[in-house]
Amino acid sequence: KVEIYESVDSDACAVRYEMVLTVSLPKLLAENSLCEIAPSDRTRILDTMAERLAGVGVYVSQAAIAMASVSVLHLCKNIWLPKSISFRQLLAELAHVDIGRAYDTNKDAQARDKNNGQVLRLYSGTREWCFYDKIEDMKRPKNKGEGKRRTEYERELVELYGLKDVEVFRYEYRLKKTQTIKSELNAALGRPYQTPVLFGDLFAEGLWQSILLNSWKRLVSRPENQLALLSTNSKLDLLMHILKNAREKDKSAHSQNQALWSYGLATAIKDHGAKTVRKELGRVWSNKSDERLDEKMAIAAELAKGVPVSDGVLHIGRELERFEIITLASLQKGV
């Protein structure tokens, strides 16, 4: 998408033009966003962008494109799910997490209901975490779902490569403001915050993995989310685990009370979600109690340490650590 804005500079007595490009880089090179690109594709991307712009009468050099500022950035990773891990179950687990007071529950609920439980969005200010099944999204009609600018070729790929029954977890981390982009990318690149982020900077080796992995860890490491993602088939086992950890820490009556309310908090969050528990407590007591609740959730998460999270959550973390490039061939092999 190319947008050109015209403005008048009265002081210089000149007309100025600003061009805004919105582009999916994988689709630019391969006409689909299931196959992934690498930082080494930088030259191909710059050449292709200059060529496409020239095709519509806009002549811009590759160097000028590389020097363009970045105002919105969506970093994405496709992760193949083995048959033992259900996408719907994984999404249901992630729907119980919380990302802070700026998290928009209403928009999230609407998104999940509208897409029949196929999309989950978590909001925190100018950051957004988005999860969906990439293959299912590719099968949807054009201009529907998350990849609204999908190509007809994407829909054909599903049939052509026999991907109909394959599940691919799509993780998108969306940075929606220049300040947020500067904060995240300059920290990852070891540069001062005020350094402008240019298009060419996006191809630094290891940058995409660093940002995506850190954003995932930031999400799952919050104490309330550690509790939300606990995986246990027996609430009694969870109680005994918490009691054991509390007793090892301190054998006093205070420790016993701490273990009991930690168990109650852990099961409530696991069953109903961290945001729901926080919201309902706020209705009964003042929202000013948030700080005390944060302290209690941190204690409960500490006492629940050692209880595993689900195989699905572990799989996503491992694959973000590996950060292997997804190709159509690898999906066919189920790797």
Give a written overview of the molecule.
The chain has a four-stranded antiparallel beta sheet with strand order 3-6-5-4. The protein has a two-stranded antiparallel ribbon with strand order 1-2. Strand 1 and strand 2 (14-21) form a beta hairpin. The protein has 16 helices and six strands. It has helices at residues 25-30, 42-55, 62-66, 87-94, 105-114, 134-139, 152-160, 178-189, 207-220, 223-228, 235-249, 253-272, 274-284, 290-303, 311-322, 328-333, and strands at residues 2-9, 14-21, 73-81, 119-124, 127-133, 167-175. With 335 residues, the chain is α+β, with helices and mostly antiparallel strands.
* Oligomeric state, counting identical vs distinct chains: single chain
Strand content: 5-15%
- The general outline is globular
| Helix run count | 16
- As a whole number of angstroms, the C-alpha radius of gyration is 23 Å
**Can you give the mean pLDDT?**
88
Largest sheet: 4 strands, antiparallel
Task: Name the helicity range.
Answer: 40-55%
Order of helices and strands: EEHHHEHHEEHHEHHHHHHHHH
Order of strands across the widest beta sheet?
Answer: 3-6-5-4
> How would you classify the helix and strand content by structural class?
alpha+beta
Regions with pLDDT < 50 over 5+ consecutive residues?
Answer: 103-115
